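dumping these here so i dont lose them again. two proteins, back to back, each one seq then C-alpha cells. dont judge the mess
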Amino acid sequence: CALPISHRHYEINISREVAEKLLIHKVDPDACPHIAMAARVACTVVVGFDIDKNGNVLHPKVISGPAMFRKPVIDAVRKYKYRPYLLNGKAVEVETIVSVKIDQIRDCHAE
C-alpha cells in the first residue's frame, strides 16, 4: 500500500550554492582559542545538516575541520535561518552542507 504523496518523506540534498541563496540569517562562530590566535590559524569547518520545512537547522554534524573550532561552528550553524525549500509549491525538509571559514586574526580582534 503506497502512502499518499503528502505523507511521503523526501530525502533531498541541495547544493551549497542553493542553500546559500536560501540563507536569510547567518551567525559567525563565537570563539577564539588562544592557541589558534597565537598560531594565526585560518581554516574551514564543513558542516552537514538538515533544513526543516520552516527553515530551521536540524542535526548539524561536522564533516571536517580542526577539533578546536567544531563546537563554536556547530553552535553558530544551529542559529542559521533559511527560507524553506519548495518542491511542487510545498515546503520540504532538505539536507545540505556549508563551509564556515574561520579567520582567527579577524575574529580575535573582536574580543
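---- next one ----
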Amino acid sequence: PAVNTLQLLPGFLGNERTGEELGSIGWQNLINFGIAPLEFENHDDYDTIEQGDILKTENIRDQLKNKNNITIKNVTQGTEIKVFHTLSDRQLQALLDGGIINTFKKEKEA
C-alpha cells in the first residue's frame, strides 16, 4: 500500500489495546489479514493521534523485513511516532505476502 495506516486500525475500531494486550488470537488475525500489529514505543503516543489525522510511513516493507523500528509520520500534526513489531519470520512472511491466504497460495504454486 502507498500509505500504510491500517496498522493502527484496531485502536480506531474501539480496541485501545496494542501488541500482546490484544491477545494471541486477535494479534494473529491481524497478521492473517495482512495488517501489521505494531506496538507503540511510547504508549502515550496513542493519545496524540486525533480522528482525521493523516498518518504515513515510508518504506515499511523494508523496515519490517529488517526488523527496524518504524517511524509513523503524523502529517497533520507534524510529529513522528515510533513503533515496533515482534513478529516471527513466518508471521512476517505472511504479513509481507498480504495475509496468510496469499502465503498458502504462494506455497501451493511452488
